[in-house]
Design a protein that fits this description.
The chain has about 525 residues and is of the alpha/beta class. The protein folds into four domains: about 140 residues, Beta-Lactamase (2-Layer Sandwich); about 190 residues, P-loop containing nucleotide triphosphate hydrolases (Rossmann fold, 3-Layer(aba) Sandwich), CATH 3.40.50; about 60 residues, Orthogonal Bundle (Helicase, Ruva Protein, domain 3), CATH 1.10.8; about 50 residues. Helices cover about 45% and strands about 15% of the residues. The chain has 20 helices and 15 strands. It has a six-stranded antiparallel beta sheet. Strands 8-9-12-7-13 form a five-stranded parallel beta sheet. A two-stranded antiparallel ribbon has the order 10-11. Helix 15 crosses helix 17. The longest helix has about 40 residues. The chain is globular, with a radius of gyration of 26 Å. The chain starts with a helix and ends in an 11-residue tail after the last helix.
Length: about 525
């Protein structure tokens, strides 16, 4: 084999791997926001294109793992409750739970031992499917679920299908778990909202408790903010981990404070740690504490943030900046629910709820090797995506009024002129809510009369978030290719060639990438490290 053929084979493998990764990312992005049966129904075509199945069946076990039943059938839009119960001691359930790999059952095997299989699976076989592939996985690490796919033509489970099924399970576990929580909690949330009226149009406030300081308000009446408030109320009643993602200045810490305030842990401490603001050499001691003499300067024992938050909530802000070596230690703490202080040898049990936040695209950080995938799936049990301010322009008048009152001091609040308010509404706000507050506060100081008729804004240039992954909405292939190449170039700080260059990630020669950039009108200076 010649050098040229070796290079071509390597290029082909890289191209295939990149294509496979793109397909996985696309499906997982579709799954990530799913929290209702209707939403899950809407992506069945995407799942079918990815996995190639004739029918998708999803069985879930009760928390006690005595019985299990059908939760979803792709062709019938079946509800999440009211299905026939099957014993968890039956052969089909036990075989799936005890196998780490997908299991294939042929039509003859299912029909011969029909009583050992769910009737819904047998019905698919009788309807023309020739085989099924099943695999068990945990929902929010609490109870079992079984994904069952039926096929009309399937000789054996090849490595590509195995990999695709396995790659989907972590996100599927999160999404299906969120659907179940949503379904089970809907009636409780409705009852609570009628009984306590603690969700107002402009803010989230806790159940009546005069001893707790209310968290900062979440201002807004737009549909996206109303949905966010409902999600906060829903997730606050559970114990699962939350990952808040959004651009800088969108209010991630305020959302974390509201989740804690609405939870059963509200009377216990909320401890905040900014992972980006602590030196890497000190962050382990900051999180887990240290014993006296464990290192130079450790003159006495220090209690870490995890112990301080015991019984309450620990908010890890900018989790995307946590050093890679500490990610493994954090994962162990989340799994074992115990810590060891630096320099100590005693395991200390903890009871802490974790809320994480980041402005980074963590999925991309996982893909390029900067963030552990197992930790990502552990903290991403309930993902919350905060909208940029430019995506909720109708809320800007309410936010402006709130900041006018907040910064009025001892004087009557000033009013914002209509023309100025419209100008504020149309500005793209790269700094989001934080930038809006600073502009309003500055305008109050610079205005003499009761009405603000002049504001000073930074240069109004089109703003593109450098950390936002390309979307997969309907668009031409050229439009999508341009967006994706720009995104990869930004991730590489504009580097085209070399081991960490965009061409390597894209799996194409650097000269080919340069030709594509020229054809698509991509200017390198537009995709530099500063975006």
């Amino acid at each position: 084999m010649t050098l040229g053929s070796d290079t071509q084979a390597l290029y082909e493998r890289l191209r295939q791997r990149e294509t496979e990764q793109l397909a996985q990312i696309a499906v997982c992005q579709k799954l990530a926001p799913i929290n209702s049966q209707k939403a899950f129904d809407s992506i069945q075509d995407d799942l079918k294109n990815f996995l190639g199945q004739e029918t998708l069946l999803l069985f879930t076990a009760a928390p006690q793992e005595i019985t299990y039943n059908l939760s979803f059938q792709s062709k019938k839009n079946t509800p999440l409750t009211g299905q026939r119960d099957y014993s968890c001691k039956e052969v089909f359930f036990q075989d799936c739970v005890n196998s780490a790999e997908p299991i294939q059952h042929d039509a003859d095997q299912i029909l011969k031992l029909v009583r050992s299989f769910p009737t819904e699976l047998a019905a698919c076989i009788r309807a023309g499917s020739k085989a099924s592939v099943s695999i068990a996985f945990r929902l929010h690490n609490q109870y079992w679920a079984i994904l069952c796919l039926t096929y009309k033509k399937l000789g054996s489970i090849d490595s590509r299908l195995q990999q695709r099924i396995r790659s989907l399970l972590p996100q599927l576990s999160i999404s299906i778990g969120n659907i179940l929580i949503n379904e089970q909690s809907a009636h409780l949330v409705t009852a609570q909202s009628h009984a306590t009226s603690f969700i107002s149009p402009l803010s989230l406030t806790p159940p009546t408790n005069t001893q707790i300081t209310p968290p900062p308000q979440i201002i807004g009446q737009s549909g996206i903010i109303t949905t966010l408030k409902s999600q906060l109320t829903l997730v606050a009643n559970s114990a699962i981990s939350v990952l808040i993602q959004g651009e800088s200045g969108t209010g991630k810490e305020i959302v974390a404070q509201n989740i804690h305030h609405l939870s059963a842990r509200s009377q216990r401490p909320l401890i905040k740690v900014n992972c980006a603001a602590i030196a890497p050499s000190l962050i382990e001691s900051e999180l887990f504490g240290h014993e006296k003499g464990s290192f130079s300067g450790a003159i006495k024992r220090k209690i870490g943030k995890f112990e301080q938050a015991d019984g309450g909530t620990l908010f890890l802000d900018e989790i995307g900046d946590l050093p890679f070596i500490l990610q493994a230690k954090l994962l162990r703490v989340l799994q074992e629910k115990e810590i060891e202080r630096v320099g100590g040898n005693k395991a200390i049990p903890i009871d802490v709820r974790i809320i994480c936040a980041t402005h980074k695209d963590v999925e991309n950080e996982v893909r390029i090797g900067n963030f552990r995938s197992d930790l990502y799936f552990r903290i991403n049990a309930f993902p919350l995506s905060l909208p940029a301010l430019r995506e909720r322009q109708d809320d800007i008048p309410l936010l402006v009024q709130h900041f006018l009152e907040k910064h009025a001091g001892q004087h009557p609040p000033k009013q914002m002129g209509k023309k100025m308010l419209e100008r504020l509404r149309l500005y793209p706000w790269p700094g989001n809510i934080r930038e809006l507050e600073h502009v309003v506060a500055r305008s109050i100081l610079l205005s003499d009369g009761p009405t603000i008729k002049r504001i000073t804004l930074p240069k109004e240039t089109d703003f593109v978030a450098t950390n936002k992954a390309p979307d997969f909405t309907l668009q031409t292939l050229a439009e999508f290719e341009k967006k994706y190449i720009i995104w990869v170039l930004r991730s590489c700080n504009g580097r085209i060639s070399g081991p960490t260059g965009a061409a390597t990630i894209l799996g194409i020669p650097a000269t080919t990438l340069q030709s594509k950039m020229k054809k698509l009108g991509i200017n390198k200076k537009f995709v530099g490290s500063k975006g």
